[in-house]
Amino acid sequence: MDAWIVDRPGPGSPLVRAELPDPQPGPGEVRIRVRACGVCRTDLHLAEGDLPPRRPGTVPGHEIVGTVDALGPGAGRFGIGDRIGVAWLRGTCGRCRFCRTGRENLCPDAAFTGWDADGGYAERAVVPEAYAYALPAALDDVTAAPLLCAGIVGYRALVRAELPPGGRLGIYGFGASAHVVAQVAIAQGATVHVLTRSPAARELALSLGAASAGPAADGPPEPLDSAVTFAPDGGVVPLALRALDAGGTLAVAGIHLSDVPALDYERELFRERQLRSVTANTRADGEEFLRLAGALRVRPTVDPRPMSTADRALADLAAGRVTGAAVLVGE
Fold first, then answer.
1. d(CA 282, CA 104)
2. 230-246: pLDDT as tens digits
3. Are residues 278 and 160 in contact, defined by beta-carbon separation less than 8 angstroms?
4. CA 237, CA 277: separation in Å to the nearest integer?
5. The CATH number of the domain where 255 resides is what?
6. CA distance linking residue 133 with residue 90, whole number of Å
7. Are residues 87 and 188 located together in one domain of the fold?
8. Which pLDDT does position 138 carry in this prediction?
9. Which UniProt keywords apply (predicted)?
């Protein structure tokens, strides 16, 4: 099959096109023919070496939509021809204290799509059926793809930020995940302020119903009850904390972040402001978010690209030339 692999991680030319054998599903696994795969910033972190590779020549991609074309021994949750989604979380031990208490995203033996195993920048992919998702029929392939990571993990970040009903939410950075979270929060009655350096992203935010959009350094026009940072810049964290009202919560989303500057306790943490990180997601997060996305008619802004241009799509993401979410479409 035709695929893209991370050959030598680093800036510049991180992806190489390769011809690989078709993967074969093992016990409890299904194989899908890839119809669409979102381009996530985590793919970029892996390709550029910010996220240390766990295996050589990995096929990235973990926002995968496809149709089942082969079943491994014992697999029966899905049938041939079913359309399913594959996300970042690929497997957990099921035995540790985190798995046993509904926190499988913290499992020390968790495995991840496109990092521990080949992902969706390819014609076919294999996934344990227990970690795949049935997709709402109302969501087409290209629309559904970004929801499988940008949507799910962004939703977990929103939950971690403890936004009160009708509250004031700040969103720092406005890429694939952030613009989905904004739609969910606005649909639930929140006032959303977007803080990003990109004029195109600010325009998109306002078109989606944000109350304001401006540079992070300027701050929001009012104190925030909650905030989520999606930008991989640790320098944004003090700005977001400063913008919180007393008792507010900041959730830092993303798997990689540059160093956070020293915090001024009185200006940025005092008065019971909270700082939280976000790590991956649970399957329950995914199921809940996909139901909610269907009910609220969440629709990401997508930029479809042929699978044959995956290297350019990743380069455009690195250079800030993608508004919304880039999605690779199977050919």
1. 6
2. 988 999 999 999 999 99
3. yes
4. 11
5. 3.40.50.720
6. 11
7. no
8. 85
9. Metal-binding, NAD, Oxidoreductase, Zinc
Q: How confident is the model at residue 13 (pLDDT cuts 50, 70, 90)?
A: low
pLDDT confidence of residue 31: 98
What sign does the CA torsion over 286, 193, 298, 115 have? negative
Token digits of residue 167: 């509250």
For residues 242 and 124, state if they share a domain.
no
Structure tokens at 98: 């985190």
- Domain harbouring 81, CATH code: 3.90.180.10
Question: What are the backbone angles phi and psi of residue 253, rounded to the nearest 5°?
Answer: -95, 160
Residue 292 neighbours by CB distance under 10 Å = 15
pLDDT (0 to 100) of residue 194 = 98
Bridge partners for 18 per DSSP: 3
Angle at 83 between CA 82 and CA 88, to 5 degrees: 125
pLDDT confidence of residue 254: 80
Residue 104 · residue 282 · CB < 8 Å: yes
Residue 143 forms part of a structural domain = no
- Residues 68/90/21/30 CA torsion (nearest 10 deg): -30
Residues with Cβ within 8 Å of 292's Cβ and at least 6 positions away in sequence, in order, are 155, 184, 298
Contact 48, 9 (CB under 8 A): yes
Q: State whether 196 and 167 are in the same domain.
A: yes
> Residue 23's domain spans which residues?
2-135+301-329
What's the CA gap between 324 and 174, in Å, rounded?
A: 8
Whole-model pTM: value is 0.89
d(CA 45, CA 176): 15
Question: Which tokens is 279 given?
Answer: 């790590």
Find the mean pLDDT for residues 221-230. Answer: 98
The CA angle 21-26-32, to the nearest 5 degrees, is 60
Mean pLDDT, the chain, whole residue set: 94
pLDDT band for position 165 (cuts 50, 70, 90):
very high
Distances from the Cα of 284 to the Cα of 132, 183, 266, 290, angstroms = 12, 20, 37, 10
Rounded Cα distance between 166 and 189, Å, is 5
Structure tokens at 8: 């030598």
DSSP state of 88: S
- Given a cut of 80, whether residue 331 has pLDDT beyond it is no
